[in-house]
Amino acid sequence: MNEEIIIAGFGGQGVLSMGKILAYSGIMQNMEVSWMPSYGPEMRGGTANVTVILSDERVSSPVLNTYDTAIILNQQSLDKFEDKVKPGGLLLYDSNGITRHPIRKDINIQLVEAATESARMGSTRTFNMIVLGAYLKTKPIVALENVLKGLKKSLPSRHHHLMTLNEEAIKRGMDIVKPFHP
Q1: What is the tally of structural domains in the chain?
Q2: What are the tens digits of pLDDT across the range 108-151?
Q3: Which of 83, 118, 137, 165 is the least crowded, having the fewest Cβ atoms under 10 Å away?
């Protein structure tokens, strides 16, 4: 098993955190893992993406040109990475701020209205956990129990009181993800 993932959006959307949680989750399952962030000089509002590789074998390089999965959280990222999803791969996206939806017919496209749902839940900070839940439902590569361990490891201890809310958000993302057909 080898899963090559790009998660891309704006800084402040939890892109890097989501990647780190996936990486920690893979470690909890004794996988070989690579986590390579990339972001602009801006803290919030600039572009951010992270490449995560989860594998049963050693990861030879964290640098990728194509991906099994692209998790897309803004239009710029959709424009940049839609063509880099391998045929038969997964493109998971939130439509908030998207002006042109994905058009490829040779990949699995899944839609999760995470921005809308996080606002409905009363905590926009759960946005990335809703997206993560949607990914886990579509590709259950890591077990939820390991994701929760990875989440706890990546959260500062002062935020551990938010574990229950984040778990609810992950489960909500699993419930609301749906196929998108161009």
Answers
A1: 1
A2: 999 999 999 999 999 988 999 999 999 999 999 999 999 999 89
A3: 83
